[in-house]
């Protein structure tokens, strides 16, 4: 993890520090600073929803694209981590933003934007270098513009210098990140955890991902045979390559199954990227009743994560004292443990935890704005058509 999250949070901290002057008591002032810093994750999640809409809008109509935004906002782990000052949601936003810009165009200003995104993404999380490399190569293969690649490389080189200096002043070594013993050698155990474990399974904590898997394997051969659909297979393949790269990478990660997280936190950015890229092609062929049922279940999973702080006293007791799991905890994992915490703490804790209502308000405001602007555009188009008809 790099310095990028802290650098981007500086304006939020100073805004909180300014408004804290109007608070009485040090505790209230600290809460104000903390709240403003938490806005970084909330806004990153909301902007992720916007970019998801923009990606889908290139292939779907307004309403189907807005549905993708709603899914990302309320039926994916983005909602859970929007309430924490982790780099998970910021990484997700920058990654999907980079994906969107890669197939935008090869103009110089777009290359400049991609370069800035690449540098920020790397500084936020060093391990995103794999996704950055793959998407930049994809960008080059699409447009074959060497000048654009040079500009992007210059921005990435700047980020590498900043990261190296950051590592050096902290550890005395430009390659030392401060995290030791990150790797485990048991790949099969890691894959089991990320695919099947009730504590980390990507399918359990983002059930709608199941549909993307089925769609990919069902359509892969057909897409290869249809030359006019080649852009589909390119987008889907690059998303799959990135996803599988990180699934393998984090399967070697230590401390994977029972820890102070809710679901596959490190995999969240790549799950979202995979889902968005496939949804924009798969929507028309997905069974809508099945889709709706899985959507409701996915919202329930996220509600369990967002309603009570995931590092709660009940879970800390289990985690720190190495208490054996009950049968239901072993079957349903962190979701059931969250429900147990709700049962113990009561409604007061639920209401306190849902301070993330700011996130919901921002999200609904964005979705409403999307519908309003599209409706306004539709009305104006009809009016112009009517005026042309009268002429």
Give the biggest beta sheet. none
The amount of beta strand, in percent, is under 5%
- Total helices: the number is 18
**Which descriptor suits the 3D outline?**
globular
* SS class: mainly alpha
The average pLDDT value, as a whole number, equals 81
Number of strands: 0
The helical percent reads: over 70%
> Low-confidence runs (pLDDT<50, min 5 residues)?
none
N-end to C-end Cα span: 63 Å
Helix and strand pattern: HHHHHHHHHHHHHHHHHH
- Computed Rg: 22 Å
Q: What do these coordinates show?
A:
There is one protein chain. The protein is globular. 75% of the residues lie in helices and 0% in strands. Helix 2 packs parallel to helix 18 and helix 5 (88-102) packs antiparallel against helix 6. It has 391 residues and is an all-alpha fold. The chain is built from 18 helices and no strands. It starts with a helix and ends with a helix. The model has no long low-confidence stretch (mean pLDDT 81). It has helices at residues 4-20, 26-57, 62-74, 78-81, 88-102, 108-124, 129-143, 146-171, 187-196, 202-205, 209-225, 230-251, 268-282, 288-307, 313-320, 327-345, 347-353, 357-390.
Keywords:
single chain, 391 residues, mainly alpha, 18 helices, 75% helix, 0% strand, globular
In short:
Helices cover 75% and strands 0% of the residues. By secondary structure, it is mainly alpha-helical.
What's the layout of helices and strands?
Layout: H1 4-20, H2 26-57, H3 62-74, H4 78-81, H5 88-102, H6 108-124, H7 129-143, H8 146-171, H9 187-196, H10 202-205, H11 209-225, H12 230-251, H13 268-282, H14 288-307, H15 313-320, H16 327-345, H17 347-353, H18 357-390
């Amino acid at each position: 993890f790099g310095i990028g999250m802290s650098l981007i949070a500086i304006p939020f901290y100073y805004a909180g520090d300014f408004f804290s002057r109007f608070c009485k008591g040090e505790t209230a002032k600290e809460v104000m600073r903390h709240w403003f810093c938490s806005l970084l994750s909330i806004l990153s999640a909301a902007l992720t929803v916007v970019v998801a809409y923009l990606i889908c809008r290139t292939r779907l109509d307004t309403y189907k694209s807005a549905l993708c935004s709603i899914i990302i906002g309320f039926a994916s782990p983005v909602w859970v981590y929007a309430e924490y000052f982790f780099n998970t949601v910021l990484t997700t936003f920058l990654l999907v933003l980079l994906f969107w810009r890669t197939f935008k165009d090869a103009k110089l200003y777009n290359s400049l934007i991609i370069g800035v995104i690449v540098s920020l993404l790397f500084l936020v999380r060093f391990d995103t270098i794999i996704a950055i490399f793959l998407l930049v190569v994809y960008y080059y293969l699409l447009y074959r513009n060497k000048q654009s690649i040079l500009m992007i490389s210059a921005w990435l080189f700047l980020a590498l210098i900043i990261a190296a200096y950051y590592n050096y002043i902290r550890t005395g070594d430009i390659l030392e990140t401060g995290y030791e013993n990150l790797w485990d050698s048991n790949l099969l155990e890691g894959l089991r955890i990320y695919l099947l474990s009730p504590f980390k399974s990507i399918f359990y904590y983002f059930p709608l991902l199941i549909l993307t898997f089925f769609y990919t394997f069902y359509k892969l051969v057909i897409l290869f045979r249809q030359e006019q659909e080649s852009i589909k297979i390119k987008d889907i393949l690059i998303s799959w390559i990135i996803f599988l790269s990180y699934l393998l990478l984090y399967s070697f990660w230590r401390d994977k199954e029972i820890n102070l997280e809710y679901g596959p936190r490190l995999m969240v950015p790549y799950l979202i990227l995979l889902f968005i890229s496939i949804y924009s092609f798969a929507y028309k062929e997905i069974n809508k009743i099945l889709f709706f049922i899985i959507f409701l279940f996915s919202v329930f999973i996220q509600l369990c994560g967002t309603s009570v702080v995931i590092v709660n006293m009940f879970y800390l007791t289990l985690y720190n004292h190495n208490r054996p799991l009950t049968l239901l905890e072993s079957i349903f994992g962190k979701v059931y443990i969250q429900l147990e915490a709700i049962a113990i703490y009561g409604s007061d804790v639920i209401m306190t935890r849902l301070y993330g209502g700011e996130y919901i308000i921002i999200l609904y405001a964005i979705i409403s704005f999307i519908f309003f602007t599209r409706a306004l555009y539709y009305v104006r188009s009809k009016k112009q058509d009517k005026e042309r008809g009268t002429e």
